[in-house]
């Protein structure tokens, strides 16, 4: 219910993809609501005399079916209020008309409130991609971050008094007959959705899954760009490689300390509850974890991140990432994706096999290389899974996951040893000369316990890895014909 002066308006917004299936209980995904990064919504508006909602004024059969099923007319009640001043500025950019709305005010729930200070670009006529171009121009002079949640979504979050929920993206399956460029665009859209949908959870910081899922989205996108390198123009490829790596690195410390505390310190303290030295280590690890989260929040709000996301959205909307967008350059973008997929998978599998067949003699550094090569093959397999027989693909992916689990546990243990060095430096800086050797002895004792735990973990996982590799190597690649 909106009041603007003496005018009272009832407005309902729903996704363009809202259908009878949605009425049956299957909600839309972020990509359905925010297709191509824009909010694509249908609006139902009616002027009313009183502040009581009148659902009969909403002319849509699917929505009316939802209202009847849920008996909404009798159940609605106000749960939050937004109060803000809006200034609108009409803009023209080449062939496109845009309205810039500047909003300042508050969203208020029963027990909490959130400040509104935002600019909204609304397309009035012309090309949607101009919105990204205009936003990139503004970003040169005004620091901002992109907000994926509407005022209403933030109001309902205040009402629920719950932290933002992490978002785990469904991996979009490709379909036979798609081109290489169509395949990249569909999958990149899913990755961008995953990154943007987890920003709020990262900023909130209460659920470690938010950082994890945002990093997963970034890793998938980095892998995707590498897989489709031959189709990319040089400038977008170089830019994305640099900027995606930077952002993933900024989230790294938060995730590493999450894993170290949850998978090493917590089980160790449960096993040795009377060991005081572990409590000392846990306290310092928690401090470093908080610093990692502060670094992650700073990165998410950095204008550099906003520019990265805007460029991604623009390139996906206009196809500017492709080599064919550069005069005089051709690419494979218009070719069928199936031959491209087979060649890519065969190339990556060859690298894995060459290194993996020596799995029982590999050094720690070589095992790390094998883990990276297996991860690249796994991402490519997931990207192209929909093009091949489901049963064979699923079996092959399961074998890859088993290898990743084994080598991932070894890598986590190796990372834990590096984090122990960080903890030792932090404790050394805190030790006062007059404190004697007790604090130093406690720290040394805790470090020894953790190193022993991690060494045993690495030995166990490496011993099991060899059988896991043999099982995987015996499988036939799912992309081979015949």
TrEMBL record:
Coiled coil: none annotated. It comes from the Bacteria. Residues 177-474 form the CHAD domain. Pfam families: CHAD (PF05235), CYTH (PF01928). Residues 1-162 form the CYTH domain. SMART domains: CHAD, CYTH. This is CHAD domain-containing protein.
């Amino acid at each position: 219910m909106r009041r603007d002066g003496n005018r009272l308006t009832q407005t309902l917004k729903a996704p363009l993809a809202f259908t009878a299936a949605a009425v049956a209980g299957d909600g839309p995904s972020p990509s359905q609501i925010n297709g191509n990064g824009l909010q694509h919504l249908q609006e139902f508006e009616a002027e009313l005399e009183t502040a009581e909602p009148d659902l009969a004024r909403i002319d849509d059969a699917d929505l009316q079916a939802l209202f009847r099923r849920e008996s909404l007319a009798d159940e609605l009640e106000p749960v939050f209020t937004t109060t803000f001043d809006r200034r609108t500025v009409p803009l023209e950019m080449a062939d496109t008309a845009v309205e810039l709305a500047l909003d300042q005010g508050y969203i208020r729930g029963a027990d909490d409130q959130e400040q509104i200070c935002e600019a909204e670009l609304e397309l009035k006529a012309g090309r949607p991609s101009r919105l990204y171009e205009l936003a990139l121009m503004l970003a040169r002079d005004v620091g901002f971050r992109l907000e994926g949640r509407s005022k209403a979504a933030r109001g309902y979050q205040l009402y629920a008094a719950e932290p933002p929920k992490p978002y785990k993206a469904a991996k979009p399956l490709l379909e036979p007959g798609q081109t290489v460029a169509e395949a990249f665009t569909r999958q990149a859209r899913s990755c961008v959705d995953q990154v943007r949908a987890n920003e709020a959870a990262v900023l909130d910081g209460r659920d470690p899954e938010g950082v994890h899922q945002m990093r997963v989205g970034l890793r998938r996108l980095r892998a995707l760009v590498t897989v489709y390198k031959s189709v990319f123009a040089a400038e977008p490829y170089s830019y994305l490689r640099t900027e995606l790596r930077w952002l993933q690195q900024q989230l790294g410390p938060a995730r590493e300390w999450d894993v170290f505390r949850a998978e090493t310190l917590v089980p160790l303290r449960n096993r040795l509850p009377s060991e005081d030295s572990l409590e000392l280590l846990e306290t310092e690890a928690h401090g470093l974890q908080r610093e990692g989260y502060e670094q992650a929040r700073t990165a998410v709000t950095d204008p550099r991140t906003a520019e990265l996301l805007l460029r991604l959205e623009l390139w996906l909307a206009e196809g500017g990432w492709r080599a064919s967008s550069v005069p005089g350059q051709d690419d494979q973008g218009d070719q069928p994706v199936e031959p491209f997929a087979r060649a890519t998978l065969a190339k990556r599998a060859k690298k894995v096999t060459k290194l993996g067949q020596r799995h029982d003699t590999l050094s720690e550094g070589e095992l790390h290389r094998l883990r990276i090569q297996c991860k690249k093959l796994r991402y490519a397999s997931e990207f192209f899974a929909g093009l091949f027989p489901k049963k064979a693909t699923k079996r092959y992916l399961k074998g890859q996951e088993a290898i990743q689990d084994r080598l991932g546990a070894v890598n986590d243990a190796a990372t834990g040893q590096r984090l122990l060095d960080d903890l030792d430096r932090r404790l050394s800086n805190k030790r006062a000369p007059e404190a004697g050797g007790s604090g130093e002895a406690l720290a040394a004792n805790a470090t020894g316990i953790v190193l022993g735990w991690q060494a045993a973990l690495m030995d166990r996982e490496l011993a099991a890895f060899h059988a896991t590799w043999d099982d995987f190597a015996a499988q036939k690649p799912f992309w081979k014909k015949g």
